[in-house]
Amino acid sequence: MRDKKSLRAEYKAVRDSIDTAVRNNQDAIIFQKFFELKEYKRANTIFVYVSFGSEVETKRIIEKIISDGKCAVIPKCDKKNHTMHTFKIDCLGQLKKGAYGIEEPCEGCAEVFKEQIDLAVVPGLCFDLKGNRLGYGGGYYDRFLADFKGFTVGLSYNECIVDIVPTDEYDCRLDLIISADGV
């Protein structure tokens, strides 16, 4: 089995190479499938990463969560402790560049605790259909998900669904992977 480091480089390149029109088409399908989930419809508090680079677009998802009257919760990385805290935002204007150049909640946003979150949308470079994900290697999400009790979803382009993602004891499996071709 291939090592995670080489897979990260490979799937970052794969994702970066997806044509913009293809990416936009898949984003629209993923968007629609996400909002059709019964877990979304039941959820009140939803944790969502803010897309960065060539990740599946989440800003439209965040806007719809807010317009649906639900609580949109965004992560903020604590680089010193390698942990994440989560904060409610009421609009995209409450985001600013933060750790690793990724947008995160600005000062003054209310912290929301993990126990209050019903549904978490988690990023990854590639996923398998068993719910395994290959993250960026910092361990932030696996530490966050280790004792998370809500439902977890990964969003992926078709090109980043693989047969097997190598895992270790610290990797947390997601409940569902959504791509344009599958749920």
Task: Tell me about this structure.
- It is built from five helices and twelve strands.
- With 183 residues, the protein is α/β, with parallel strands linked by helices.
- The chain has helices spanning 4-16, 20-36, 38-42, 59-67, 140-145, and strands at residues 45-48, 71-78, 83-89, 95-97, 103-105, 111-112, 119-122, 126-128, 133-134, 151-155, 161-162, 176-178.
- It is 27% helix and 25% strand.
* CATH first level: Alpha Beta
Secondary structure class reads alpha/beta
Largest beta sheet: what is the strand line-up?
A: 6-3-2-1-7-10-12
Q: For the terminal residues, how far apart are their CA atoms? A: 25 Å
CATH fold annotation: Rossmann fold
Strands, total number: 12
Radius of gyration: 15 Å
Query: Mean pLDDT, nearest integer?
Result: 94
Q: What is the architecture at the second tier of CATH?
A: 3-Layer(aba) Sandwich
Shape descriptor: globular
Uncertain runs: none
Strand composition percent: 25-35%
Fraction of residues in helices?
Answer: 25-40%
Biggest sheet statistics? 7 strands, mixed
The number of domains: 1
The CATH superfamily is identified as NagB/RpiA/CoA transferase-like
Tally of individual helices: 5
SSE succession? HHHEHEEEEEEEEHEEE
